[in-house]
Specification:
The protein is mainly β and about 850 residues long. About 10% of the residues lie in helices and about 55% in strands.
């Protein structure tokens, strides 16, 4: 026969008598459905299929070729099929190619080809395809030898197999010996760069004979075309053996997966033993998981590798590092830490894992990015397939303050996170941010009250209803600066909201903030007009503030703040710094735009200056320095306030005060004197006044200004040495009438901020026309909060008196001691009404 003439080893021992035949044929099909339904069910051949051929039984020569637009057999189909077969003498040559072949719905190969030749039991084959639905291609070259009807041998020559992620090649020939009961594989070694697969052994009916395999650096991405669900990443190394493929197949293996991740979420390094369970059609596994050299857990159970990828695994945690979960945390939460111990079950599928059980968290912590705060706790957590729940947790901030929390974290297969945390707090750190975190406001905030943090997807919601506590220090950058002109020498230059945000836009999209804060004088605030030169207004106050941020990133602020104390560091061209004291009773009111608040503030610059230059009488007694107060009134809009000035002489008699005020009767004259007092620490003579006798005072302008500048710089440096104590130094040079003065100012709070101390101690020394003796000067004020809320106080003071030029019997000091009580009320009768249900009113410094 034709087959026996090419493959003699297949010749049957029985000879059959055959009649001689010789013919040519040509076939063109039309509708073949009825014919194939009867003789070849499952075969479909399209119309216009053409066959051409010839046959001669005397030489067993045969030639056959054909073109079929479409052929299908039991769900496997080929488009544009071409084939040819030609046997001449004992040589058989054949070739088959198709444009596109479909193996199953959604699975196809392109450019399939098979060609070869056979002669005397030997076969040369070439099999390949140019592409597929899984991104694979191949070009395999083989030699074969037929030893008998049930025994043949195939050698895989060096060939290429592209699986979508690199080219696999066997550099050396591998052999396959096939008989009726086994397939023996020898020397199969495939390599793709550092990835290697070795196979050696037998596929045998004998269940004791193994097929061994070894993997080295095999990337899991290579399996993606054959696995559903989320993508797996990592590299597999290890070895194993497979048994009894014809009976109850099972696999024994020890494998390690390095840098395993599911989708974009890292898992860690897996070391496990795996056994194929034929009865369950699953892989039994047991092993351990670690990441970064830290062991995370042990596990045991089964994994179904089919399309469902079902999981049935027991997870054993022993001080599991929660930092392992960092990549899975939702937006806005970070820095997870702590240890977990527990016995949990993992079910569901690889795409939607379900964890359940109870575990203990020890020193667990998390950071809330928007608030800049970190919290820690130790507690049991109840875990359900879609939820992590913690009930009545004692939460601690970074400073050890505590609050009570209830937390629920919902998820869908460790995706689509939705969380809610509610806190009841008593002096708890609620915010700690810097100017780089939020340009609208930043600082440190302590509060008592309630706060709720929730979120899902890319949205974070924060709701707070609280009262400020001691230690609160909030800054509001306003982006303004100061300039100098001849008369209106201080003005605020507004950059506007658009230009301010254009510097570095703060992305608040997705953040929804709703805060109601009852501000007490415990809270310190700063309005930063120009941080580059230190142009800052700071103080303490009381009021009610509502702040909101919409998911679109729109920030709104409403409420009012009444100033109780503070200071304003006035800067002039980054050369001169003057510290103004904020007058109590000033107000800042917000109506929505945080940069467009309404101001009604007064700041006082206190100094000592001689009246000689503005007095008509040329009396040397006026060369002695007396207390002077320069008051700056800020009204109207925050970004462009109206500014007016006032000069007061608190210790002189009315006659002297009237004569000095007469020199400042016009706005131009007033501004001139204000400028002189702030910059030169002295009055300037009126334009129409005689300059006679001014030389003495004028000669000291430069030294007075230089000493003021030096004193301010030293004071700023001293104050930076400690957060608990404010220190200041002031030096005033003397002249022919007044002595030199050195003062040291100290302000602090002791005994848990119950004792408030403010003191200014100095000395006058040197030569002067009126005195040659050194004398001690200074003030001391002490307040002790008798009640924790600060409403009942004991106060004592010793204040030095400035000499009144018209009083010879004036004492050098004024002393006093007393008890004071303070209470706020909206209506007069509320002053006598007893309040109930309030928890410890806030202390008032």
């Amino acid at each position: 026969s034709v087959v026996f003439s090419v493959f003699p080893a297949l010749r049957d021992e029985v000879d059959y008598e055959q009649a001689e035949q010789a013919f040519d044929l040509e076939v063109r099909t039309k509708d073949t459905r009825a014919l194939f339904d009867l003789f070849a069910p499952g075969l479909t051949l399209s119309e216009n299929t053409v066959f051409n051929g010839r046959f001669d039984s005397r030489t067993f020569d045969i030639a056959l070729s054909g073109i079929a637009p479409f052929v299908e057999w039991d769900g496997v189909s080929v488009d544009s099929l071409r084939f040819s077969l030609d046997k001449t003498m004992d040589v058989l040559a054949f070739a088959v190619e198709g444009h596109r072949g479909s193996l199953s719905p959604g699975t196809f190969v392109n450019g399939v080809f098979l060609s070869g030749k056979a002669y005397q039991d030997e076969v040369d084959l070439r099999l390949g395809w140019t592409g597929s639905s899984h991104g694979t291609s191949g070009d395999l070259r083989m030699n074969g030898v037929v030893h008998g009807p049930e025994r043949f041998e195939v050698d895989l020559l060096p060939s290429d197999l592209f699986l979508g992620r690199g080219n696999w090649r066997n550099e050396r020939t591998a052999s396959f010996l096939v008989d009726s009961s086994s397939v023996r594989i020898k020397g199969l070694h495939l390599a793709n760069g550092a990835q290697q697969v070795r196979v050696e052994g037998e596929i045998n009916e004998d269940p004791t004979i193994p097929l061994a395999f070894e993997l080295q650096g095999l990337r899991l991405e290579n399996l993606r075309p054959w696995l559903d669900g989320p993508g797996l990443h990592g590299s597999v190394s290890g070895q194993g053996r497979a048994f009894d493929p014809y009976g109850a197949p099972y696999v024994l293996s020890e494998l390690r997966v390095d840098s395993l991740s599911v989708g974009t979420k890292p898992v860690g390094d897996l070391a496990f033993a795996a056994t194929w369970n034929e009865g369950q059609r699953a892989i039994d596994v047991n092993g351990s998981l670690e990441r970064g050299g830290v062991k995370a857990m042990d596990f045991e159970g089964a994994v179904n590798p089919g399309s469902e990828q079902e999981l049935d695994i027991r997870l054993l945690f022993d001080r599991f590092d929660l930092a392992f979960l960092e990549p899975y945390m939702p937006e806005g939460l970070s820095g997870i830490q702590g240890a977990l111990t527990g016995d949990l079950s993992l079910n569901g599928t690889l795409a939607h894992p379900a964890v359940r059980g109870t575990a203990s968290l020890v020193d667990a912590g998390i950071h809330i990015d928007y608030l800049g705060t970190s919290y820690s706790f130790s507690h049991d957590v109840n875990i359900a397939p879609d939820m992590f729940a913690l009930d009545l947790v004692e939460l601690h901030d970074e400073e050890g303050n505590s609050a009570t929390a209830i937390a629920t974290i919902l998820h869908d297969g460790l995706r689509n996170w939705n969380y809610n945390v509610s806190l009841e707090m008593d002096r708890f750190l609620c915010m700690e941010t810097g100017p780089d975190d939020n340009e609208l406001y930043f600082g440190k905030a302590y509060a008592r009250g309630t706060v709720e943090v929730s979120g899902h997807a890319d949205k974070l919601e924060v709701t707070l209803d609280a009262v400020s506590e001691r230690g609160t220090d909030i800054s509001f950058p306003l982006g303004a600066s100061t300039e100098v002109s001849n008369i209106d020498f201080v003005r605020f230059v507004s950059q506007g909201v658009d230009s301010l945000l254009a510097q570095e836009e703060v992305d608040l999209s997705g953040v929804e903030l709703d805060m109601h804060v009852s501000v007490t004088p415990d809270a310190r605030f700063q309005l930063i007009f120009d941080p580059t030169v230190g142009d800052i207004m700071s103080g303490r106050g009381a009021g009610e503030l509502d702040m909101t941020v919409t998911p679109a990133g729109e920030f709104s602020m409403r409420g009012d703040l009444e100033v109780t104390e503070g200071e304003y560091l006035f800067t002039l061209r980054n050369i001169l710094n003057k510290r103004f004291e904020m007058a109590p009773g000033g107000r800042i009111v917000w109506y929505g735009d945080p940069l467009d608040a309404q101001l009604d503030l007064s700041a006082i610059y206190r100094l000592r200056a001689p009246l000689y230059n503005v007095m008509v009488e040329q009396n040397d007694a006026y060369r002695k320095r007396v207390p002077v107060e320069v008051t700056m009134h800020l009204t109207d809009k925050l970004q462009n306030p109206g500014i007016s000035y006032e000069v007061r002489l608190p210790t002189v008699d009315e006659d002297v005060r009237s004569r000095v005020n007469a020199v400042m009767s016009t706005p131009q004259d007033l501004n001139r004197q204000v400028f002189s007092l702030i910059v030169l620490n002295n009055f300037t003579p009126p334009p129409d006044a005689s300059s006679q006798g001014d030389g003495l005072a004028g000669g000291n302008y430069a030294s007075t200004t230089a000493s003021e500048l030096l004193s301010n710089q030293v004071s700023n440096w001293l104050s930076g040495l400690s957060k608990d104590v404010d220190l200041g130094l002031n030096y005033r040079p003397g002249d022919a009438i007044s002595q030199e003065e050195v003062e040291l100012a100290v302000s602090t709070q002791l005994f848990n901020e119950r004792l408030l101390l403010n003191t200014t101690v100095g000395v006058q020394y040197g030569q002067a026309t009126s005195s040659t003796q050194s004398q001690l000067i200074g003030d001391v004020q002490a307040e002790y909060l008798l009640s924790p809320d600060g409403k009942l106080r004991l106060k004592a003071y010793n204040l030095s008196n400035d000499q009144n030029l018209n009083r010879a019997d004036q004492a050098q000091y004024t002393q006093g001691v007393g008890v004071g009580y303070r209470r706020e009320f909206d209506r007069f009768f509320d002053l006598f009404r007893r309040r109930s249900g309030r928890k410890g009113d806030q202390a008032v410094p």
